[in-house]
Write a structure and sequence with these properties.
43% strand; 8-stranded antiparallel β-sheet; Cytosolic_motility_protein; 6-stranded antiparallel β-sheet; 2 helices; mainly beta; 322 residues
Amino acid sequence: MSNPPPKEDKWAFGPIGSPFPDNPVRVLGQPNMSVALWYKYDVPMHGRARNNGGVLECSFSYKKAELAGIKDLDGQIQVLQYKGDHNTLGFWYEWIKYKDRFEKADIRQIVHCGASIPILWKNRPEGALLAESSGSITIIVRNTKGGPPTCGCKHCHKPPPPCVMIDEWINLRASDPWPKDKKLNKALNKNLNIHQGENSEQYVALWYQQGEPVMGRIWNDNDWLLQVLVELLDFFRGYDYDWKLFSFCASFGEKEWFPVYVIVKVLYHRSFLFFQYTYYLNVSTKFHIRSEKASAAFGGKEHILVGPSVQNGTLSQSRLQI
């Protein structure tokens, strides 16, 4: 089944400090970086947007300087959105190398505004960077043929696994409906012994504060909900999830299971740990892998575990599918 005629790109409008929009088009491999557009003297320029505790923040390059914050970026910021799928919109977003921009030109449309094209410098030593350029590195295009490799609709071909090797996170806000069409990564794969008043079915969550990732937990409270770890369909997921003791993953030698983590400024990793506290309550923690430091929030305050104390914690792990 062919796609319908492609619709126009959809952009959300808002000033710096406004609520972060829903369904943003995230940059390839970057959990908290989205495509942004801004006008300087009526000239369009692309940059990167990020979610800081539910608030919109942006960064743009201009004459060898970085523009960020309300003093530099007055007016409306635009954030690229994708609401629907290739069956309703007629296209899907794909990241390709700039040198391949003329290949399959009949089905690929470069995302641009005037002469500005958003580009991704993925292998930058200091970390991936999204900016604008007249041409280099990796660019985003609209593909009007079929759907993305991860599409699970009834019209798309299901290739044999493994395929995708990147964790999938979906963006949600505290006021969004609970995602009934996605399989979320359930903590410990079971209902938990938890504090009174909380739902025993809890899931792995990720939130950003001042650009720093914070691991935590979410549960369904009357269908209201942050960024949540999703278990992709088997046919394109090249790995499996499970929960293992930290002492198991911290052992030396060849490993089969690896922690699920988020890179922070290329310096250290944060992962997700579940620990069984006094009275056998299951409590989730954010965990610094290299420093072996875990912290959990419950009872109105933060509880910290360091070194040997974390050895009995259960860590979210992934391994290659065989």
